[in-house]
């Protein structure tokens, strides 16, 4: 059973000066699923994310990834273990080319990143893999473009490709469709679906349309604590969720 | 042998714009030019030229300049030399090239002791002479308990050590001392320490701005009323930077002051006409040293370093500056020094009239005796 | 003399008081830096040179224009502040949108020029300036003699420091200043004349340096390089306090003065370095400084 | 043949460097090379990691003092002396770096400045540095035990070799896998962290590299002038290296060398004779002009001109 | 009423640049009093830039912008707000050195009939609860509420709102819709940049559609159903 659980939090708690933003949260994320975290504004979703990726230190509680206690590890160490986060804002290296962006991510595993005496030509052997990843997200034609010039949606796609280059076992996505036009939302949603094969994904998302399409399982947070958990049908039928999060007429929203 | 490159070239190295600019600086260049003009502008029918450079009080700059002068510009002798640190660095280069170094304004005794060389001619003064000249009479006059406020670097340490030796030899006692980092502006803590030590004389083993600031602090806290303040190295420019009330009646030692007698007045007058400012001890020394050097070149018939130095040491310098003087084998120019008192504001006839002569000190009483290791006549 | 454990309490009190005096002086200087940094995110390297100019103006005023100390205390900061405004308007503003490192380099250049001009014109030896008559004399505190003038410095600096702190932390104007630091464009879009505010604040920060210069003239030697070395110590204080923290600059300024005073008593050789050592220790424990916010 | 073609420019430069001491005073050239290397090392931090260190004088001086002291007292050959100086600077760079790379931008500049000031006072007071006097008369020694460096010309070629080595190392590290990571960090640091790079370690590594190469420059300079003094440790030296880099063009490979040549040339020109008091004013003005009008520096502007016109 | 009837905002032939890049290529639009008009378009089409250009927050501009009868092209940025205009930026612009309440009170009132603090806290109870915490410590959604509340307080009667529903939970989005309708009733003039077409469609009077820095279509409320097809191709709805 526990084999199935890739990420687990035990009584995860974070307080800020007398205010508890995350309150005894116990999450169990199953390997291979897309798990969504939703909840009203200020419920503590981003804080949970920040705790998981060490941008914040928990006040108490434990985080286990693949059975290993990672509560005390550094941010970069956690990424190296295979738990990788993508950002709410698009996070790319603007003055590198699209290909170089992906290569930076591939390069880390090469173990040559401290080698200042070698020519950067050694990185060229990463090109085929980088190109394959770009092809996956439909960016192959832009490989030599400077990232700065890409439109927003493509930057998000690039960011995803970069993240995938790390070949993470588990991805954390914080509002992946935020600020996107409808077209791009659909593209990104499809992309997430595509990469979720053989991967676990935990995402925060306000776009219920996306959540309903993608999520295998949903945890609803409210005031720092878990309100309920289940698949979309169960959760959206819960009157407490309707009241605190969806507002009364939630169904039209989803239907849209 | 004759004159190399058909001219005699003298380089003047000094701080032209920094802390010591007023002490030597462009005035030293003017003094050297004046000496050349007085000498007739030519030696052995060959022209005499002057080059000058700003060492910015940095040993690295000074030594690089001297190196370039000797390597590239064929300079035959080097004058000026203000900060001891720069002087010692310049000496290293000049000595190796066997060129005379006419040190007019630097005070370190090292030129004729630790780092002595047959090519050094240390002219106007050194700190030992100052300490002897200033401290000894005060101890004799009853100042027995001394406190030192010392600049925390080699110069200050040396000054304190020499002076403390003089004090103890003459029956006084050092009751305390404090080492103050160079460039400190606020002396209040150190003044407080001096105050609680119960000393009746407080010696300031520092120079320039450090001296000015420490004296200001002393008067602010009333230390100057409890104890006699003693400046161990005081230039006329320092005196002029201070409110006369703070420094009046301080006794100190100098190798030259312009208002001393007719000879110094006559020369100072001429210098002032040329340069616009009253000469300092260093500038007068630069003149005196240059003149002596040129005479030696003439008599030796060459500008070769060894021959000229030998001639300089064989002949006694004698002018308005160098009185009862000789250039010893170790390179020390021993001459009369003067203990003076700083005049009060109402005693001063003009801006330059700041010192009153108290006592003339014979050179061999105040300068260190020759260090046997530096007696180049025996080598 | 009575001593306890080899410590002479009378002398120690004296040193503490002296430390307090220096500390209030540091506070005044670091306050100016902290304000300018807080608002413009630039390190004003010219602050030391402007402090020097303040002292020189006081001296020039007395020497040539018959300007008494009291008037200098009022007028010189204004003149220096005005000069600062010119610097801001014509040198800093054109590069305000560039990386802040450039403005640091720019003010570094300004400092070099100012210092160079003053030593070229006035030479580098110190100029005398006496303590004004009404502040001369010493007060006997029992354990030491406190020169009245030093007491005066404490009073003036502390008043100015805390007045400024209050204005920035507790008033609406202060809220504008803090907001302007973060997003000047938006603040301006809300209807606030940010360029004017920036200019005036810079002028004020610089005027503080001018004021410190006037206060310093009677006790320190007035010379072209008087600001340069002091400035670095003041930088260290601002770093220890946490850059951009106004209260931090004041409190740290005062406490560093005291710590330095103690060092002078117990181990004078380290008095020049103690502040930097404190800085290293503080940075090891709190990288953002004592009162700074973690970024 | 291919090699010659693609390196035409470099080969011409090196050939020029080989013959130039016959026309120009070699000590001046050596000074330019030493400062050029120093500025290039500094530029590694500023131009390629985007961090302005205002305390690089510390490394120049440490290299110089250590080499100077060992050469004077331990009878080493020059190459070993220089190696020790370089290592010492690297160690110091590690210490300073661990304290400072946690901070960014101006904060970083201030922290490095204060640390180097601490070191300055240490050098001022420590007995082995001879305080104000500096270490004087440092022997140049015999390279590998048999090439006498007292001859300015052989010293020049040695300095040139050291310079080329250092310069090559900088070029290499900028264009290496490591350099690629640095570039990424400069572009977007939080993203680099999230990709699993321990950013501080990379910055620290770059800092140590830069410190070591600055030390190399300092060590070599100490041998050239046979003197090491507090000037090298003073904060104005830290400012000067910024100026050189800025004048030449930060973030360019050749900028620092050009900048060093310009600044050293100006200093040399003004140190002679009556102009000395203008030097600070001139330097300050150059700073101001560069910042206001030529932020790309000489080489940067040149590159831009070439790019726009050809 | 002014000569132009009840027109509160008119933009004509507006061009705007960021440095070298030319972003807006001649925008013409107008908003009447009491009207709610949206700017629709894809990412990067220049909607935010249009709002910023109106506030004089971009590099270079040309053309004409008339607010409340005053030509503002030559006006300094800080003068514009005082014409009665309030701007809620896309990136929210919450100040971290101010606490929530200070943030709320920061923009100077430009007219006298703004909402009171109490009314605002009633509308956004989250803000009341967190009123003493540092502005940027709020969650993303809370910051969004703060940014909007802040300009409601100033009494501005022309509002430029950039993606105010971004990152908000569905409940709050609904509530915001109600707030906007209320504001409209109070006769406020609103120019709304919105990604969420389903939010904007029912409450807006008119829509402008932007593409590549140009206005490519103007759609009246009544024509919406007729032009669905067109909107679909333009926006990918
Ligand atoms: N650093 C902090 N200091 C103080 N309070 C904080 C801090 N970070 C977050 N909070 C508070 O914790 C609560 C949870 O914030 P969090 O950002 O996790 O919410 P969220 O669920 O992501 O909301 P949203 O959907 O609006 O992004 C909020 O009320 C916020 O004000
Ligand atoms: N500060 C800037 N500097 C340079 N270009 C910019 C800047 N801000 C925006 N742009 C460019 O201007 C164009 C229009 O941007 P704008 O933000 O107005 O778009 P938008 O329609 O609001 O889209 P979004 O959904 O991304 O907010 C885009 O191509 C963008 O890349
Ligand atoms: Mg969030
Ligand atoms: Mg936008």
TrEMBL record, chain A:
Keywords: ATP-binding, Nucleotide-binding, Transport. Residues 7-248 form the ABC transporter domain. One of its GO terms (cellular component) is plasma membrane. CDD domains: ABC_Mj1267_LivG_branched. GO terms for molecular function: ATP binding; ATP hydrolysis activity. This is Amino acid/amide ABC transporter ATP-binding protein 1, HAAT family (TC 3.A.1.4.-). It comes from Thiothrix eikelboomii.
From TrEMBL, chain C:
Pfam families: BPD_transp_2. It is found in: Cell inner membrane. The chain crosses the membrane at residues 12-35, 42-62, 68-92, 104-123, 143-168, 189-216, 228-254, 266-285. GO terms for molecular function: transmembrane transporter activity. One of its GO terms (biological process) is amino acid transport. Keywords: Amino-acid transport, Cell membrane, Membrane, Transmembrane, Transmembrane helix, Transport. One of its GO terms (cellular component) is plasma membrane. It is a multi-pass membrane protein. PANTHER family: ABC TRANSPORTER ATP-BINDING PROTEIN, BRANCHED-CHAIN AMINO ACID TRANSPORT SYSTEM PERMEASE PROTEIN LIVH. Belongs to the binding-protein-dependent transport system permease family. LivHM subfamily. This is Branched-chain amino acid transport system permease protein. It comes from Thiothrix eikelboomii.
Automatic annotation (TrEMBL), chain D:
InterPro entries: ABC_transp_permease (IPR001851), LivM-like (IPR043428). Pfam families: BPD_transp_2 (PF02653). Signal peptide: none annotated. CDD domains: TM_PBP1_LivM_like (cd06581). GO terms for cellular component: plasma membrane. It is found in: Cell inner membrane. The chain crosses the membrane at residues 12-30, 37-60, 80-99, 106-124, 153-171, 204-224, 244-266, 278-298. Keywords: Cell membrane, Membrane, Transmembrane, Transmembrane helix. It is a multi-pass membrane protein. GO terms for molecular function: branched-chain amino acid transmembrane transporter activity. PANTHER family: ABC TRANSPORTER ATP-BINDING PROTEIN, HIGH-AFFINITY BRANCHED-CHAIN AMINO ACID TRANSPORT SYSTEM PERMEASE. This is Branched-chain amino acid transport system permease protein. It comes from Thiothrix eikelboomii.
Automatic annotation (TrEMBL), chain E:
It comes from the Bacteria. Keywords: Amino-acid transport, ATP-binding, Nucleotide-binding, Transport. InterPro entries: AAA+_ATPase, ABC_transporter-like_ATP-bd, ABC_transporter-like_CS, BCAA_Transport_ATP-bd_LivF, P-loop_NTPase. It comes from Thiothrix eikelboomii. PANTHER family: HIGH-AFFINITY BRANCHED-CHAIN AMINO ACID TRANSPORT ATP-BINDING PROTEIN LIVF (PTHR43820). GO terms for biological process: L-amino acid transport. The keyword Metal-binding does not apply. This is Amino acid/amide ABC transporter ATP-binding protein 2, HAAT family (TC 3.A.1.4.-). Belongs to the ABC transporter superfamily.
């Amino acid at each position: 059973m526990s084999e199935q659980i890739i990420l687990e939090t035990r009584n995860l708690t974070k307080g800020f000066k007398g205010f508890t933003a995350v309150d005894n949260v116990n999450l169990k994320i199953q390997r291979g699923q897309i798990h969504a975290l939703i909840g009203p504004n200020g419920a503590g979703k981003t804080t949970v994310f920040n705790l998981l990726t060490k941008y914040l230190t928990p006040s108490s509680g434990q985080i286990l990834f693949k059975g290993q206690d990672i509560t005390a590890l550094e941010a970069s160490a956690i990424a190296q273990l295979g738990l990788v986060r993508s950002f709410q804002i698009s996070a790319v290296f603007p003055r590198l080319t699209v290909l170089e962006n992906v290569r930076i991510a591939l390069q880390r595993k090469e173990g040559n990143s401290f080698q200042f005496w070698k020519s950067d030509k050694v990185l060229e052997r990463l090109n085929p893999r980088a190109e394959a990843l770009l092809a996956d997200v439909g960016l192959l034609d832009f490989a030599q473009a400077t990232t700065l010039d890409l439109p927003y949606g493509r930057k998000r796609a690039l960011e995803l490709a970069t993240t995938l280059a790390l070949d993470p076992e588990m991805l954390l996505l914080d509002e992946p469709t935020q600020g996107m036009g409808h077209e791009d939302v659909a593209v990104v949603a499809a992309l997430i679906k595509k990469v979720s094969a053989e991967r676990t994904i935990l995402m925060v998302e306000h776009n219920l349309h996306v959540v309903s399409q993608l999520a295998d399982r949903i945890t609803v947070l409210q005031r720092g604590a878990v309100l309920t958990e289940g698949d979309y049908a169960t959760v959206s039928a819960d009157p407490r969720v309707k009241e605190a999060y969806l507002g009364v007429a939630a169904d039209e929203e989803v239907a849209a | 042998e004759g004159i190399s490159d058909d001219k005699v070239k003298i380089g003047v190295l000094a701080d032209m714009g920094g802390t010591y600019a007023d002490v030597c600086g462009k005035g030293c260049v003017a003094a050297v030019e004046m000496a050349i003009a007085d000498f007739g502008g030519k030696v052995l029918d060959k022209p005499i030229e002057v080059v000058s450079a700003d060492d910015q009080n940095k040993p690295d700059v000074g030594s690089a300049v001297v190196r370039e002068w000797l390597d590239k510009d064929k300079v035959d002798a080097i004058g000026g030399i203000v900060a001891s640190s720069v002087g010692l660095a310049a000496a290293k280069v000049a000595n190796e090239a066997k060129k005379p170094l006419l040190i007019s304004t630097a005070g370190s005794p090292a030129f004729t002791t630790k780092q002595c060389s047959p090519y050094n001619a240390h002219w106007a003064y050194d700190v030992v002479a100052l300490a002897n000249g200033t401290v000894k009479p005060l101890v004799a006059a009853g100042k027995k308990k001394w406190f030192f406020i010392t600049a925390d670097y080699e110069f200050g340490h040396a000054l304190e050590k020499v002076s403390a030796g003089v004090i103890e030899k003459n029956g006084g006692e050092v009751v305390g001392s404090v080492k103050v980092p160079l460039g400190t502006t606020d002396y209040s803590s150190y003044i407080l320490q001096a105050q609680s030590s119960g000393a009746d004389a407080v010696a300031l083993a520092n120079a320039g701005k450090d001296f000015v600031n420490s004296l200001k602090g002393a008067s602010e806290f009333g230390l100057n009323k409890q104890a006699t303040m003693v400046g161990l190295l005081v230039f006329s420019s320092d005196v002029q930077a201070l409110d006369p009330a703070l420094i009046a009646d301080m006794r100190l030692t100098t190798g030259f002051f312009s208002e001393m007698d007719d000879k110094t007045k006559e020369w100072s007058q001429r210098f002032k006409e040329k340069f616009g400012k009253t000469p300092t001890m260093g500038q007068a020394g630069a003149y005196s040293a240059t003149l002596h050097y040129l005479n030696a070149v003439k008599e030796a018939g060459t500008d070769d370093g060894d021959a000229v130095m030998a001639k300089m040491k064989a002949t006694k310098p004698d002018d308005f500056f160098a009185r009862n003087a000789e250039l010893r084998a170790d390179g020390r120019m021993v001459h009369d020094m003067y203990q003076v008192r700083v005049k009060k504001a109402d005693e001063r006839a003009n801006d330059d009239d700041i010192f009153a002569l108290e006592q003339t000190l014979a050179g061999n009483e105040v300068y260190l005796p020759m260090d046997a290791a530096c007696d180049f006549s025996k080598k | 003399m009575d001593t306890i454990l080899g410590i002479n309490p009378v002398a120690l009190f004296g040193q503490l008081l002296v430390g307090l005096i220096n500390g209030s002086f540091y506070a005044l200087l670091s306050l100016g830096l902290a304000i300018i940094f807080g608002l413009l995110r630039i390190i004003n390297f010219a602050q030391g040179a402007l402090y020097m100019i303040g002292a020189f103006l006081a001296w020039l005023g007395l020497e040539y224009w018959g300007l008494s100390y009291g008037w200098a205390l009022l007028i010189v900061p204004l003149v220096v502040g005005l000069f600062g405004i010119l610097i801001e308007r014509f040198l800093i503003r054109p590069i305000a949108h560039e990386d802040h490192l450039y403005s640091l380099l720019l003010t570094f250049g300004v400092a070099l020029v100012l210092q160079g001009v003053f030593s070229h014109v006035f030479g580098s030896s110190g100029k005398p300036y006496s303590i004004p008559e009404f502040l001369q004399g010493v007060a006997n505190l029992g354990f030491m003699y406190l020169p009245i003038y030093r007491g005066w410095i404490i009073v003036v600096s502390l008043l100015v420091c805390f007045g400024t702190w209050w204005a920035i932390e507790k008033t609406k104007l202060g809220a504008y200043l803090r907001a302007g630091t973060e997003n000047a464009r938006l603040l301006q879009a809300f209807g606030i004349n940010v360029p004017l505010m920036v200019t005036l604040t810079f002028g004020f920060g610089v005027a503080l340096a001018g004021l410190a210069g006037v206060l310093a003239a009677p006790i320190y030697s007035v010379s072209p390089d008087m600001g340069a070395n002091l400035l670095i110590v003041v930088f260290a204080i601002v770093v220890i306090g946490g850059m951009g923290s106004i209260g931090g600059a004041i409190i740290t300024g005062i406490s560093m003065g005291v710590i330095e005073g103690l060092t002078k008593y117990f181990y004078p050789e380290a008095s020049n370095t103690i502040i930097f050592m404190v800085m290293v220790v503080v940075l090891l424990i709190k990288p953002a400084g004592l009162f700074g916010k973690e970024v | 043949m291919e090699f010659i073609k693609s390196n035409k420019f470099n080969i011409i430069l090196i050939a020029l460097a080989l013959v130039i001491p016959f026309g120009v005073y070699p000590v001046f050239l050596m000074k330019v090379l030493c400062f050029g290397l120093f500025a290039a090392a500094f530029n590694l931090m500023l131009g390629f990691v985007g961090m302005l260190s205002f305390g690089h004088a510390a490394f120049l001086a440490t290299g110089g003092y250590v080499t100077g002291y060992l050469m004077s007292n331990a009878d080493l050959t020059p190459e070993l002396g220089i190696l020790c100086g370089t290592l010492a600077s690297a160690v110091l760079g590690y210490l300073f770096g661990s304290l400072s790379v946690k901070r960014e931008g101006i904060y970083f500049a201030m922290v490095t400045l204060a640390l180097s000031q601490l070191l300055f006072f240490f050098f001022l007071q420590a007995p082995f540095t001879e305080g104000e006097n500096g270490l004087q008369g440092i022997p140049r020694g015999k390279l590998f035990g048999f090439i006498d460096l007292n001859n300015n010309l052989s010293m020049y070629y040695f300095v040139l070799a050291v310079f080329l080595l250092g310069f090559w190392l900088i070029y290499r590290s900028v264009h290496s896998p490591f350099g690629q990571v640095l570039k990424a960090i400069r572009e977007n640091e939080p993203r680099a962290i999230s990709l699993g790079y321990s950013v501080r370690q990379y910055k620290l590594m770059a800092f140590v590299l830069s410190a070591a190469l600055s030390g190399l420059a300092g060590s070599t300079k100490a041998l050239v002038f046979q003197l090491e003094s507090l000037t090298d440790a003073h904060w104005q030296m830290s400012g000067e290296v910024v100026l050189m880099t800025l004048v030449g063009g930060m973030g360019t490979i050749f900028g620092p060398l050009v900048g060093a040549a310009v600044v050293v040339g100006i200093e040399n020109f003004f140190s002679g004779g009556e102009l000395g008091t203008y030097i600070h004013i001139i330097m300050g003005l150059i700073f101001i002009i560069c910042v206001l009008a030529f932020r790309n520096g000489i080489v940067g502007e040149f590159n831009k001109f070439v790019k726009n016109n050809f | 009423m002014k000569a132009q009837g009840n027109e509160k905002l008119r933009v004509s032939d507006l061009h705007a640049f960021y440095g070298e890049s030319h972003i807006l290529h001649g925008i013409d639009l107008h908003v009447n009093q009491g009207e709610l008009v949206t700017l629709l378009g894809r990412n990067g089409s220049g909607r935010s830039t249009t709002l910023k250009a109106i506030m004089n927050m971009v590099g270079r501009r040309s053309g004409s912008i008339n607010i409340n009868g005053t030509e503002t092209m030559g006006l300094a940025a800080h003068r514009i707000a005082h014409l009665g205009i309030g701007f809620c930026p896309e990136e929210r612009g919450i100040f971290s050195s101010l606490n929530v309440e200070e943030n709320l009170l920061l923009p100077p009132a430009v007219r006298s009939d703004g909402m009171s603090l109490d009314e605002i806290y009633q509308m956004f109870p989250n803000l009341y609860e967190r009123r003493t915490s540092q502005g940027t410590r709020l969650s993303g959604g809370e910051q969004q509420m703060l940014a909007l509340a802040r300009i409601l307080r100033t009494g501005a009667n022309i509002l430029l709102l950039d993606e105010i529903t971004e990152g908000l939970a569905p409940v709050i989005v609904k509530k915001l819709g109600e707030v906007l309708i209320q504001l409209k009733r109070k006769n406020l003039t609103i120019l709304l940049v919105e990604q969420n077409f389903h939010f904007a469609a029912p409450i807006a009077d008119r829509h402008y559609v932007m593409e590549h820095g140009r206005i490519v279509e103007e759609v009246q409320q009544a024509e919406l159903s007729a032009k669905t097809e067109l909107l679909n191709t333009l926006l990918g709805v």
